[in-house]
Amino acid sequence: MIKVKDLHKHFGGFHAVDGANLEIAEGSITGLIGPNGAGKTTLFNVIAGVLEPTAGRVTMAGKDITGLPPHELFHKGLLRTFQIAHEFSSMTCRENLMMVPGNQSGERLWNTWFGRRRIANEERALRAKADEVLEFLTIEHLADHRAGQVSGGQKKLLELGRTMMVDARIVFLDEVGAGVNRTLLNTIADAIIRLNKERQYTFVVIEHDMDFIGRLCDPVICMAEGRVLAEGTLAEIKANEQVIEAYLGTGLKNKVNT
């Protein structure tokens, strides 16, 4: 689905992404791991249009999407979440979800005067869909809570819920487990697996929790110094000497074996 060819992103003399090449298969849950500073989040930002590449090419389903802005990629079904959840804190969880779909009739001034029935019908449909998403994610009890007042893990679930309010094809999850307790992390993992199997979502997951990666992801891609270092199953990645060296000889080996 996604092909990245010789991708570069430079910040002055620093090469955050330095000739990365990879492919994301449709229907997969692909893990992206690597030491801090490996270029993982920068790679996400370039693919998702947050940053323009210095060089290289990104294609989606065979079509060039290099440098397209996030709103255009959103309409193509490419979405991403962030390490720190971005919610509208003063709005309810339900309202946060209802805001996601674009081109709503209520966004146009003319319709607020002459299209009130259409707006009301759309809002009823959006509310019903938002409630369905909240139930799917097992956080329906938070529907009327202000999003800024729920826990960090629940905010991550809410971000995942936003992708369900539109026709997402591929979702990039950036450290979805960061700061999340184990119970909620399992809930997030369950939701990702269901979305992948039941709704054919393709996922790419940056994560440092190897148990989480091992449960969800095949294949796993390891980056180091802005390049793809290795790709395979988690077991193959764990046994790869270059990967172990990238984690300073002990970091990954100890982390996944303890």
Automatic annotation (TrEMBL):
Residues 2-250 form the ABC transporter domain. Gene3D superfamilies: P-loop containing nucleotide triphosphate hydrolases. The keyword Metal-binding does not apply. One of its GO terms (cellular component) is plasma membrane. SUPFAM superfamilies: P-loop containing nucleoside triphosphate hydrolases (SSF52540). It comes from the Bacteria. One of its GO terms (molecular function) is ATP hydrolysis activity. Pfam families: ABC_tran, BCA_ABC_TP_C. Keywords: ATP-binding, Nucleotide-binding, Transport. This is ABC transporter ATP-binding protein. The lineage of its organism: Bacteria, Pseudomonadati, Pseudomonadota, Alphaproteobacteria, Rhodobacterales.
